[in-house]
Amino acid sequence: MGAETVPYGRVTQKAPPVSDVHIVWITAGLGCDGDSVAVTNATQPSIEDVLLGAIPGLPRVHLHNPVLAYENGDEFMEYWYRAERGELDPFVLVVEGSIPNEKIKSEGYWAALGTDKTTGQPITTNEWIDRLAPRALVVVAIGTCATYGGIHAIEGNPTGAMGLADYLGWDFKTPAGIPIVNVPGCPVHPDNFMETVLYLLYQASGLAPMIPLDGVGRPLWLLEVLCTKAATGPVITSRATLRLNMAPRSASSNSVVGDRWSTATYRSAAGPVVSAVVPTWEASVSGAPCRAFRTSSCRSWTNRRVASFPPPQSAFMARPLLRCVT
Amino acid sequence: MATATKTASPTRKLVEMNWDPITRIVGSLGIYTKIDFENKEVAECHSTSSIFRGYSIFMKGKDPRDAHFITSRICGICGDNHATCATYAQNMAFGVNPPPIAEWIVNLGEAAEYIFDHNIFQDNLVGVDFCEQMVKETNPGVWDKAQSTDAPNADKHGYKKISDIMTALNPFTGEFYREALQTSRYTREMFCLMEGKHVHPSTLYPGGVGTVPTVQLFTDYLVRLMRYCEFMKKVVPLHDDLFDFFYEALPGYEEVGRRRVLLGCWGSFNNPDICDYKYKNMTDWGRAMYVTPGVVVDDKLVTTDLVDINVNMRILLGSSYYETWENSEIFVKEDPLGNQIHRDHPWNQTTIPKPQKRDFDGKYTWVMSPRWYHEGEAGDKKHLALDTGGGAIARLWSTALAGLVDIGYVKATGRSVKIYLPKTMSKPEVEFEWKIPKWSNAIERDRARTYFQAYAAACALHFVEQALGELHAGRTKTWTDFKVPEEAIGCGFHEAVRGVLSHHVVIRDGKIANYHPYPPTPWNANPRDIYGTPGPYEDAVQNTPIFEENGPDKFKGIDIMRAVRSFDPCLPCGVHMYLGKGKVLEQRHSPMFGMY
Question: What is the value of pTM for the model shown?
């Protein structure tokens, strides 16, 4: 191709300083894989947008997630061992599911992935976190379980489930100086997660500064605006997975706006994780932050607001029909 | 790759191979096999689970009204099936009956779940096992044949050759793969319209739903449903072509993943005209469901009675990391009809975990062994290891044989199920007919999944009409009030996407005293029980013939993968499969378990 056929505008396209980034995604916490499933629903950006290079300026991205991987077994696990040996640098470590306490029993395992070739016993999820977290570019906890313990941190669970930061320490930082990035939600809002990944890829490419996080590790821009609507009444939303499902500061919650009852797990001031059953609408109107709907994600059909909850049972056509509240 | 030379068997040379984890399923699954490469056959198999999360323990003492919010978190792809089943159990325990429009809304939400979930599993996860890249790497001969084989239904789906279908299924780069992924998104929107949030719903409650029924709600659902109907008119013939081709290209492929026909279906989609959630009437309202509950043994329908199904459930131990509960309390001695309830029934189960080293000669899994007690013909094992076949095949088989469902859009004929999809934007009306297959095997489980996607869509059309009828008549109240009783029992029966689902609850002092959910995967993925009966995966993988062209060095185990994925494993508690005792000549991939 001659120089004259090269588009003039190509000068705007710069090769990223890092050519390849791997995403190593552990789903073997105590979880339900619901966050992996939710992320298949992301459109802003979608997984295929990122993997097929549909966004300019990014390195090539290689995703190693068990729900979507082509490879099986040893071929799949090879990426874990390579990450451990430093052969996948830089890699993003995504952790899904609560972290069990493997020390509260004499033998066996609560959660594991793969088999130790010398002992023949399963390799615990905690062991993988110990091996990979200190080598990762950044560690991202996805969903309410991995971020803050979630439903499995409920009272009475013998596994001692906790959040990733409870396990690694709230002051944990990767060698690149990045703290744990928490993207909560049960399941995570897919666009919140993919947008966070996108930000981190920009950061890895030198195109964005250090990711801004709030006091409990959440990307600041996802939560900086309080949803004022929650103060006047719950919003029933049908967004595929919920942007409103945000935990109050210093607490994790499985509560969902619109639920009548829910179980919330809180980190108490003293440290241990406790759970409580709360009427959710109460929690949601009492100052739990939620982000305002953004134009890009506010599809007219997705958000239905009701004036009170439970919704009024007025006659057909007499009720307020609100397509969009923003 | 580790290799170990072992004592030679006089008759068979078995090579131990493992895949851990099995990807493209929900949950962590590992497979440990011993393969007889000379005779091209899997010799033996064990199944084991890698994660314990403690639901049945931490449910104790909780408010029963929380049961659906908590148990939804069992599963990240069909959590709403759990939530729904938990509300069914609560409805029974609380003595509350939701208004019809609430039932239609739940049915619409659950139909959308089948529609979405089967879609993404079939074409984004299972489909990769049949894609160009995989077929080239495992069976180059089959790929060659696919390139010269015309697709019989090309006019319906647009792919001229079978190889074109395979190329379209390549992960991410394949056109049909991406179309299916996008379909999974707008069908999840359908779900969210009804149940608020995927995968853990926000608008389901005992006594009804929090969804606001409006014209807009049902319009938004219907337009997406019709888009999906159009999509299914392409997908059913596409999968028929692909699956038929495998039988043709690989004679004998019907043996892959084949096991005896032992199918369970607990029924789905309640009919609010009949269903009152009272246990004493459960036989009648069970038979009124739009997917008929039933147990199919060797193509015979041995029951369609939910009371019969309930009373004969047994949870056995044998190879699982738990202690027995023979000294624990019996919560329910008899059901409300006076039937005796066994100690091993979920109502009476006490979960006592005992973490320990994995030992394939002893305890090797977190999964217990659910069985269905049946006094069959002489010589038949009494504790039947029913499977769900990934859900769809059992639902269609049971419904077809029972011959009870007739709503126009779907009709059970006794030997088949007819599924009608009306005219859509660019395709005329279509009637599909799922006929009872000759085998319960990998291909037929997969094929049934496609047909059930159409079945669920056809049912949803009926439910939209019924819901709109209620709305137009002004009957828009979506719940019935209730009080939580001090003492009660309840059970819910439903179909999770991948098969039978039951929730059993005992309430004392207004709190949960015992709670045991039984999702499909424990039925499918369980280990050898106390009587030595292997679980369905173990059973189906054992003696599966190997058609892969690769030898041990490049072996991908594709036939085993297809056999296992046909069950739609959904194990946020993992499953490991392992070949048991057998003389091992050499060991590859990794030395396992330190037991040899």
Answer: 0.86
